[in-house]
Amino acid sequence: MTLSDQPNHDSKRGQRLIGFMTTGAIFVAAVALVVALGDIDGAGSELSDVQWLPLIAMVAISVVSYCVRFARWHRLLSFAAGSAGGYARSFVAFAAGGLLIFTPGRIGEAAKSVYARELSGTPISASLPVILAERINDVAVMVILAVVGLLIFGATGELAALVIGMGALFAVAAGLYALFRLIVKSVAGRGPFGLYAFVRTSRSSVLSMLGRRALTENFIFGMIAWSLEVAVFYLAMVAVGESWGGELFLIALAIYPLASLAGALSMLPAGIGVTEGGLAGLAVAVGGMDGDIALAATVLARASILGTVVLFGLVMLPLPARLQRSTQLDDRASVEGS
């Protein structure tokens, strides 16, 4: 028996673990909100004079970006498992599991795989590679957008630092990958968790993620989602008093992917602290913005993007257990009826 096919006992144990991690994630999100609100004293005037039109557009685009990310998850899951199930159950798994981005390294996001198994019968060994493929693609897209923005903006020094840093990062990643393969082969069939057997069952899913269609769609969806988030930061800057214009958008394009990349590599829950500091600091250093305006725009953009994740996650969080109970009752009724 592999890790993807554990009985109900393990399923309940996994659900309890997810519940514990979700509670922790909500706590981290609440603490982050309190800290953010406590650090915006200097930006209070900009937030009190916020322009409503770009603010409304910013929130709407945050929701659209979230939906694009769900569409990517659903499509890649269909490639990996042959079918992602219905859109409704797939969205519940995506939203409820997505709430766990507020865990170190976003490791709790693996709850999506547990929910997908419980709601749609998708093996964990098929869905976990989807999450990994999304993360790797996100890093690539952030680097590309940052390079484009820095090239257009003329920040050659920052671009050189980015290229050197990412080269070192990929070298380390390649070394870790080689070490992982060595470890997996050395524990073939051994140990209480059957790691090697689980990796073998994931092989077809991994190969499907490397197919041309999956790679293309992953990249396109990722590029759209991250470009929309750049637009969110741009609108946040406009909302707190910056003038509309192409130069301001280029500032957002140059610094938002960089700050998000730093947050992702920090392994902190949702990159909290690092991403915000990077956005505000780069807006001042690269864009020449006033510090209070940069901080206010950062708070608005991050609140809109992360707030969307939290809102949908909290709404959908009770549904997996209810849907699972409903499915069990239907199965019991069909058995009794036969």
Could you describe the 3D structure shown?
There is one protein chain. With about 350 residues, the chain is mostly helical. Residues about 1-10 and about 185-195 have low confidence and may be disordered. The relative contact order is 0.15. The longest helix has about 30 residues, at about 10-40. The protein has helices at about 10-40, 45-50, 50-80, 85-100, 110-120, 125-155, 155-185, 195-200, 205-210, 210-240, 245-265, 275-285, 290-315, 320-335. It has one domain. Helix 5 packs across helix 6. The protein has 14 helices and no strands. Helices cover about 80% and strands about 0% of the residues.
Largest sheet: none
What oligomeric state do these chains adopt?
A: single chain
- Shape verdict: globular
Low-pLDDT regions: 1-10, 187-193
Strand proportion, as a percent range, falls in: under 5%
- Count of DSSP strands: 0
Total domain count: 1
Helical amount: over 70%
Tally of individual helices = 14
| Cα-based radius of gyration, to the nearest Å | 21 Å
Secondary-structure element order, N to C: HHHHHHHHHHHHHH
Structural class of the secondary structure composition?
mainly alpha
Ends apart, CA distance between termini:
29 Å
Instruction: Give the integer mean of the pLDDT values.
Output: 75
